[in-house]
């Protein structure tokens, strides 16, 4: 005779719920950058000083106080994870590289455009200055 095994449902523990919540709060603050972390720390000190002290210690320990963690977190969060589908991962990497190349080309174009605009404005200024010098003489 085959015995059926019955498994009781598992519920998340209080620790896993708290760590999940804190992870979501960390992600939310990271999306908003260093000013959000500083505001959270100040509010922690205002309402319950140990929370503010804990946030300050965490910010120093994780380098969120001294570096821009927003950009570092976003770049590592989405790109480094593999989906398990090698074809899709290769397509994603190729697309991200193409987009980065297009972004760099566009930024170069904007730089050239700004340079041309600056040169045109400077040339116009020099022409006007030359006309004023001619009129004064």
Automatic annotation (TrEMBL):
The UniProt transmembrane annotation reads: 36-61
InterPro entries the record matches: DUF2852 (IPR021273)
Q: Tell me the keywords, alphabetical order.
A: Membrane, Transmembrane, Transmembrane helix
Query: What is the protein name for this chain?
Result: DUF2852 domain-containing protein
């Amino acid at each position: 005779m085959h015995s059926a095994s019955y498994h009781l449902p598992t519920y998340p523990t209080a620790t896993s719920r708290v760590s999940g919540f804190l992870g979501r709060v960390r992600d939310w603050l990271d999306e908003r950058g260093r000013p959000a972390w500083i505001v959270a720390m100040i509010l922690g000190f205002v309402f319950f000083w140990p929370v503010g002290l804990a946030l300050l210690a965490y910010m120093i320990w994780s380098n969120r106080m001294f570096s821009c963690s927003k950009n570092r977190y976003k770049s590592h969060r989405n790109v480094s994870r593999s989906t398990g589908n090698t074809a899709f991962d290769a397509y994603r990497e190729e697309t991200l590289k193409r987009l980065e190349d297009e972004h760099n080309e566009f930024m170069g174009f904007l730089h050239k455009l700004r340079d041309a605009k600056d040169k045109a404005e400077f040339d116009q200024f020099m022409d006007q200055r030359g006309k004023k010098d001619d009129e004064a003489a």
